Amino acid sequence: MDSLTWVIFDIMGTIAFAVSGAMVAIQRRMDIFGIIVLAALTAVGGGMVRDVLAGITPPMALCNVTDFMLSIIIALLVSMAYSFWPYPPLNKNFMLWLYNMFDTVGLASFTITGMLTGLSREAGNPYVMPVLLGVITAVGGGILRDLMAHRMPAVLYKEIYATAALFGAVVSCSLQNYVDVVTMAWICFVLVILLRFSALHFGWHLFHPRADWHKRR
């Protein structure tokens, strides 16, 4: 595993998910402690689950405080920016776009760190562990964030989300014998970003079964 590439995407994902977690906490009217908890949980939750599944114990987030400290700093900065912004409240559509942007960058970045962690284990099928760890790392923190905020996890019902991580990880893993690790990581990043933003822009969704069956009974 290319350690520098892993660290770069880990920092990118931590910052992006800490911002999205802090924004959700502010929207749910949490205090500063709640904002920090939600930001940190979003930023490191998926990675901790990934490490346990990969047999890395204790999880890296508990051995190196960088991600925790970075998420706390981001939570404080977002809180201060929200509290002391000198201009009229920002448009809700812009805030939603800002949230989706950070959430998507976090999704793509953590797909890569999970995938690279799986590839470094060199155990079993060359696709199963990297792909699953990529998806779990990408969506795990967001699921914990939404549960703590008393929201249905977005991954279960909203636009193409986990599917974007799954697609990026599968395609990238299929190229592992043809390109170097850095190229594979950036291909994954671009694929996840493009698919996720395309889904947001064009309103793409996965198949939803009709939910009005009970009305016809």
List its traits.
8 helices
Strand runs, count: 0
H-E string: HHHHHHHH
Alpha carbon gyration radius? 18 Å
Shape: globular
Largest sheet: none
Helix count from the secondary structure assignment: 8
Give the mean pLDDT.
88
Helix content: over 70%
- How would you classify the helix and strand content by structural class? mainly alpha
Number of domains: 1
C-alpha termini separation: 56 Å
Strand content: under 5%
Low-pLDDT regions: none
Membrane topology: Multi-pass membrane protein
Transmembrane segments: 6-26, 33-56, 68-85, 97-116, 128-148, 160-178, 184-207
Domain Glycine transporter: 8-80, 101-175
Pfam families: Gly_transporter
Give the topology.
Elements: H1 3-27, H2 32-53, H3 60-63, H4 66-84, H5 92-121, H6 128-148, H7 162-174, H8 181-202
Helix pairs in contact: 1-2, 1-4, 1-5, 2-4, 2-5, 2-6, 5-6, 5-7, 5-8, 6-7, 7-8
